[in-house]
Amino acid sequence: QDFFGKSDPYLEFHKQTGDGNWVMVHRTEVIKNNLNPVWRPFKISLNSLCYSDMDKSIKVECYDYDSDGSHDLIGSFQTTMSKLKEASRSSPVEFECINEKKRQKKKTYKNSGIVSVKHCEIIVECTFLDYIMGGCQLNFTVGIDFTGSNGDPRSLDSLHYLSPNGVNEYLTAIWSVGLVIQDYDTDKMFPAFGFGAQIPPSFQVSHEFPLNFNPSNPFCNGVQGIVDAYRACLPQVRLYGPTNFSPIINHVARFAAAATQQQTASQYFILLIITDGVITDLDQTRTAIVNASKLPMSIIIVGVGGADFDAMEFLDGDDGVLRSSSGEPAVRDIVQFVPFRKFQNSPKEALAQCVLAEVPQQVVNYFSTYKLQPPKNPAS
């Protein structure tokens, strides 16, 4: 305590290593000028706190903070996770904070205060692999931009132009990302759609047409099936416009919404949109993404060509929370944007790694937020 009798207390939690030394694993915030502090709840992994051993000693030290760094020990106590776990709001667990130096000096010394633990619970948090190994299905859908801004596919400078060896930026992006995703999908059947083209037989503009022109069964067999469907579709459609993302986002969101009826983490949906980046329905797309952020769904946008991708960067909420046109914020960031040209001279794996960098965390965030466990729980 300082001269005026008030202290600036904080707590340190320590675990004991195999050689008997104590290692600090957590420090609380300092509560200024207070003899009855209430610290904020905190989360720590069981392994970090006590090597996941419920009966291993945990040492808690209470210090009086000093700005010059010479923090004074108020007192300490030892406990175990088994004991801490007994705490509840109706029945807190209390520990006497003992300062050994003071106890040895003073015969009447009782303690230097009481630390009261109001709540302690163990939550099983699954990793991305826990969900996958526990039976969660990743459902992969591809959306391909067939709008006029890509250029005439017969022209050398078109993004849809197939080189003599049969590739273009769209196909390279499909291969790179699809080969990684398909390993997590047991049936390897992927719905693949185009948008922004006039399609046969009436050549009406469509913003979500199956690449295989079969609305009742838009599935392609593996990544090769998507590639084959794309190559067959390209000469049959007329590139047109406008570039609307929202119909295909809402299409996948309807399936994701149906999956929320299940009580386990059984399904997660990933929409890969490959586009030249010129977007027409930005407001509707923002609203579609904000609605989808409440669902088991992620959106990956791969930008091909050299266009201005500012709108795509804007949809990727890394620089702040994306809001719908009415101002509603996304509950989580579900969009990852990657400009393809950045990886043009890199190995295929580099693009796939970057494109999928955020997906595992997005999957974990969604299922842990809604406290959903895998169908077969590997953590048990």
From TrEMBL:
* SMART domains membership: C2, VWA
User: What residue ranges are annotated as transmembrane?
Assistant: none
Q: Which domain of life is it from?
A: Eukaryota
Localisation per UniProt entry: Cell membrane; Cytoplasm; Nucleus
Gene Ontology CC annotation, any one: cytoplasm
Ranges for domain C2 come to 1-95
Tell whether Cell membrane is among the UniProt keywords. yes
- A GO term, aspect molecular function: receptor tyrosine kinase binding
Which Gene Ontology BP annotations are present? cellular response to calcium ion; ERBB2 signaling pathway
Which keywords fit this entry according to its UniProt record? Answer: Calcium, Cell membrane, Cytoplasm, Membrane, Metal-binding, Nucleus, Repeat
Q: Which family does it belong to?
A: Belongs to the copine family.
Name of the protein? CPNE3 protein
The scientific name of the source species is: Amazona guildingii
